[in-house]
Design a protein that fits this description.
Chains A, B: One of its GO terms (cellular component) is nucleus. The structure is a homodimer. By secondary structure, chain A is an alpha/beta fold. The first copy, chain A, has helices at 34-39, 53-69, 86-101, 116-124, 145-150, 164-172, 190-201, 230-239, 277-280, 320-324, 335-370, and strands at residues 49-50, 76-81, 105-110, 131-135, 219-223, 243-248, 251-256, 267-270, 286-289, 308-311, 329-331. Chain A is 35% helix and 14% strand.
Amino acid sequence: MCSTNFRKTPSASASPLQTREPATAHTSIARQPPNFYAMATPAARTNCKVILAGTIAKGLLAEVADGLSKLAEKPKLVGFLANEDPAAHMYADWSAKTCRENGFDFDLRVVSKADIEESILSANNDPTIHGIIVYYPIYPATSRQDSYIQQLVSLSKDVEGLTHRYVFNMYQNIRFLDPPKNEQKSILPCTPLAVVKVLEYLQIYNSILPYGNRLFGKTITVINRSEVVGRPLAALLANDGAKVYSVDLDGVQMFTRGQGITKYHHEVHPQDPSFKLENCLPLSDVVISGVPGKTYKVDTNLIRDGAVCINFSSDKNFDSDAVKQKASIYVPAIGKVTIAVLLRNLLRLVQNQKASAVVAADQEVAGQREG
Amino acid sequence: MCSTNFRKTPSASASPLQTREPATAHTSIARQPPNFYAMATPAARTNCKVILAGTIAKGLLAEVADGLSKLAEKPKLVGFLANEDPAAHMYADWSAKTCRENGFDFDLRVVSKADIEESILSANNDPTIHGIIVYYPIYPATSRQDSYIQQLVSLSKDVEGLTHRYVFNMYQNIRFLDPPKNEQKSILPCTPLAVVKVLEYLQIYNSILPYGNRLFGKTITVINRSEVVGRPLAALLANDGAKVYSVDLDGVQMFTRGQGITKYHHEVHPQDPSFKLENCLPLSDVVISGVPGKTYKVDTNLIRDGAVCINFSSDKNFDSDAVKQKASIYVPAIGKVTIAVLLRNLLRLVQNQKASAVVAADQEVAGQREG
């Protein structure tokens, strides 16, 4: 059975920097007259459009560059590394490189587990630091200590959107920090937001519909319900109007704003245990998978002809050749979009910090007048 | 049963000018915070986006105006009216008005049935006439004489795309008249092409996918399989990659290019008689209905939540209030798009005539050189 073919996804797998681009480029063959096919090899005979994360990231990076050009100072991101995982080191190096390439400062601080709390608090109070990223896991997944550390990061510097207020806003579909002015957007977690940006690029979000409802009518399966990626992703997509089947080892849950999406934010409906992944796939316009492990593959036979398939695992959850015979669009990895979103979040933090500073200054001036 | 709730659609109903705009404007309510709903009336509480044909036609008319500005002379359309149907007179008047408003000449010629053949042949040979439209029906639907008259119109002046070569090209998915140069596009029938233009505007066509495959992954039900609208429409949509359920009194047929849309043009698969409209509707992303008659209504309960619903009948095939509780997008009529497409076809004929004249002149010059 498909739904028992993967292990529960640990939050460890979900760092925004932990999805990699495939080493090889993919090509898509546009429809050609029949005589073209006679010349082509059978493997090339597919109408699946393969879209690489680098292509999708370009627009986001251009948006970031534009925002950056309007700032007086170069924003600085600080990364805290408090584990010995060589993969985490590699991702830290990658984020450093991408930050610098795109005009941001990056400072990697390798600290001991004992020092992580003090180090974060100190960075919170350092006005030269604009964003903080912590490389998880620090403590074993069975411990909840990483959740405690997530709450230590200042709201104004939490580039990953992992502190409670951001998470609460996301689940409650509250999009701004400063209602009713609505000038400061709430920060969304990088990997789920990267998937949203991928779906926008692919025009699965229909911009004819009003903002906030643009997935109305779409059925989406998300395989992975981790606290850090899968569950927030299902919530985000349902808040935008989709009917989402969230699938993990402990069953299927449907996230939806109800018929006619009349509810303001999503509700979660656990499905009967007999309703499994293999029941979700044939109903889904979009299949999004993020299961860690080399052995897990989505059963391509069950995917709807012409579905859109997106992999956000660092492992390949789709059989590449098979999925191209079925899908209309296949996105094999999203890592480069995730890091573009990280930079976009950092820029947004800087903009919010400036707006807050203006508000604080206004209040101070008002206080002096009243005093 | 739904599928026996409408009568076989006569070709008479399918003149491109025979769908009207609704008299009243519709509004769409974007998603609002919950307290907004408390103030709104229950009827207004819908997330369905209603889009009027006039809005969709604007872009097409702008495209036509741009093409027109590059021509030395004003193109002339001649309409032949050989029946006493007051509705046909009204539509002829409407086409005259729209032509003139958009910078085209229009000449309505009221002729007797006995004179229609000679009149068309004479217009074919008149170099001041660029396009010909005939208002059908002239003869009773049981007679095939109207089909004979359709073949009389010169290929270079057939603004409705009803002559055999255009119809053949459409079914065979041949998009140009002059392969391999591919500079002269084949003419498509106005109402089916208008539906395509509506679907493009609504972004159901995904422009991320290659031209010709942009409906890949979409399931569409078309209710009406008349020779003039329903069947060509199903073929066009399937040729563009959709899986189409074509529904009429004599059953359901599936039009498709097969799994992975690997076939170059669609094939038609008659469905088992037990598979009816009520089986198609829950599977369909898009429901397109063109059934004549005031009594016919699509059963809204069977429509997928968030589906796109389009009416091309001059009667309202959807219960307006009910469909807005279910659909993500509702297009209540397409008449204004159809007439914009008619003008676009006329412009294309003029462009093709100019290109052909250049080719003919080249050949003549070449002939003189060789002679």
